[in-house]
Amino acid sequence: MKHQLDFEKPIIELQNKLVALREHPEKHSLGISFEEDILLIEKKIAETRRQIFLHLTPWQRVQLARHPKRPYTLDYFARAFTDFQELHGDRLFAEDRAMVGGFAKLGEHHVLVIGTQKGRDTKENILRNFGSAHPEGYRKALRLMKLANKFGLPIITLIDTAGAYPGVAAEERHIAEAIAVNLREMTLLEVPIITAVIGEGGSGGALGIGVADRVLILENAYYSVISPEGCAAILWKDRANAAKAAAALKITAKDLLHLKLVDEVVPEPLGGAQTDYAASAENLKVVLLKHLEEILALPVAERLKKRYDKFRAHGHFLEKAEPLGEMKSTKSAELVAA
């Protein structure tokens, strides 16, 4: 099996046994039936898959989020939406193929959709710059969002990027400024905005199209200020500690929902979104429609206030106060030590 992840090996081994049993020569030459054995292995495969995917570690979910067979933005545009018409160019510098967008329909609603797009093979990855947009990509996204605002169309963005392109060319064309302007302008757009993290949600590259009334995340996606490998390289001076960093960063969908950084987790088929594109797209469509209906019911002023308050509340936390007696004894000990 191509693109096999380490934790999937027990499933693959059982599947190989099943294939061998079905193709056993004795089954055909001697009329021997292995139906009972086949049914037993099929049940074991289903149970093994269930046990593995219900108890994934944060690092394993990161690996799933990066799975090369996982549905990308254009796959969702083709399945969760209809009548997608792509628009191109930022009208300032160039067309960025890592950022795609255009008009579409979600159910009966006319919307504008935008998302970061990765490639399936080397040629397409070069074309899409591995899903890492340049400044012109974010400026194109903003141009399209302002167009949607002009015509009163809700905006839906799909995030799947390791981050904005960090190269010299991007710096020369002011990548930080492009993302910062998007953050500011998206808080002011009067139309509903919904964003969904469908794979990787990396740093400012994700935030550049991620300021929204509702932030959703797929079950096996992640959203983080830095990649686990980058965090491990900084804190432990060794990228081999990526699994430890992934756990410490609290970047999984469940953690983000608990921290109130996302509004809902979109379920995936057992085994990940790559196992069933149609079911994954349908799950996303249902949740998007639910939230869009809720946001459309709000007056514009209330919608803008809620959006602003939502992001202002990020990063707030409370420290548990020490009991008064403990504080006094601690200060006394400090004075004695001095």
What is shown here, in short?
This protein is of the alpha/beta class and 338 residues long. The chain has helices spanning 9-22, 25-29, 35-54, 58-65, 73-79, 122-128, 135-151, 168-172, 175-186, 203-207, 228-235, 242-249, 253-258, 277-296, 300-312, 324-337; strands at residues 82-86, 99-106, 109-116, 155-161, 193-202, 214-218, 222-224, 264-266. The protein folds into two domains: 10-55, no CATH class; 63-312, Alpha-Beta Complex (2-enoyl-CoA Hydratase, Chain A, domain 1).
Question: Which terms would index this structure?
Answer:
2-enoyl-CoA Hydratase, Chain A, domain 1; alpha/beta; 2 domains; globular; eight-stranded mixed sheet
What report would you give on this structure?
It is a single chain. The protein has 338 residues and is α/β, with parallel strands linked by helices. It folds into 2 domains: 10-55, no CATH class; 63-312, 2-enoyl-CoA Hydratase, Chain A, domain 1. Helices cover 50% and strands 14% of the residues. It is built from 16 helices and 8 strands. It has helices at residues 9-22, 25-29, 35-54, 58-65, 73-79, 122-128, 135-151, 168-172, 175-186, 203-207, 228-235, 242-249, 253-258, 277-296, 300-312, 324-337; strands spanning 82-86, 99-106, 109-116, 155-161, 193-202, 214-218, 222-224, 264-266. Strands 1, 2, 3, 4, 5, 6, 7 and 8 form an 8-stranded mixed beta sheet that branches. Mean pLDDT is 89; it is low at 331-338.
